[in-house]
Amino acid sequence: MKVVMQVEREQIQIPSGHSFRVLRWSRSLREVECVLGPDQAERVTGEGTHWHFHVEMELTLFIAGEGTRFVGDHIGAFAPGDLVLLGERLPHYWHTRQASSGISVQWYFPLGHAFWSFPETAALADVFRRAGHGLHLRGQTAEAVSGWLQEMTQADGLQQLALLLRILSCIQQAAAGEHRPLSGRSFALAAESHYQQAIAKAVRHLVAHYREEVRLEEVLKLTHLSRPTFARQFKKHSGRTMSEFLNHLRIQAACRELVESDRSVLEIALRCGFTQVSFFNRLFRRVMKCSPSRYRAGK
């Protein structure tokens, strides 16, 4: 029997009287507040704990917490201070290892929106375009933007708008070394993707079981998709094949183990789901541009 997936993208509700929304969390991405003004907030459903996308752009700061960041076809580690600008319809997910806290701002200013009626905003068009790959912000830019984001959680609507414009201007003027694209490709997922829920289930399964042998048959049963449909949709939504996605998960886990433990390279490779250390070493060199031993020594 064919199962039709009815879900989709995150449905973001911009608060009445606002043109964007400011979110914060103090323990978990599941427990999120929408900040309406000083000492005024309301609970909203947190969606950051699973693979998803939305038409709105998003700027996310992690004040505390660490884990694995998924943005488009990018898989990488993140730590406190991580600051990322996401473009429209860019799939993303933060897998946190413990409790976390942070701030997000979400907005949707498509062509034709009143935002672009001010000629000064034309300078931001290129930033919005490059955000389609996800932009990781660093250095003085990240430091300044992080401070303004925290101010936004204590500001009223007009003050929040002024801070958002200041933030966007700062990103637009950032030095070349203070921002880098994360995803190798941009994404143009339909506003309503019938396969989004199925791919989210697959991603959660891979993240939970990457240390084990993962069989495609198990994933197909979980998603209720045929082999060709799953292969096509997984790559469309994640930018990678399932095996590529799984291997990059394992490499990121190995990087953490190399830094945080004194286990041998062989033991780490096996603990992270690799069955052949020779394959692990070749893949590690290709992805990280150095050997596991050199990576450990460099950290």
Automatic annotation (TrEMBL):
Entry-linked SMART domains: HTH_ARAC
Domain HTH araC/xylS-type: 200-298
InterPro entries associated with the record: Homeodomain-like_sf (IPR009057), HTH_AraC (IPR018060), HTH_AraC-typ_CS (IPR018062), RmlC-like_jellyroll (IPR014710), RmlC_Cupin_sf (IPR011051), Tscrpt_reg_AraC-type_HTH (IPR020449)
One Pfam family recorded for the sequence: HTH_18
Matches recorded under Gene3D superfamilies: Homeodomain-like, Jelly Rolls
Record keywords: DNA-binding, Transcription, Transcription regulation
A molecular function GO annotation: DNA-binding transcription factor activity
Name of the protein: AraC-like DNA-binding protein
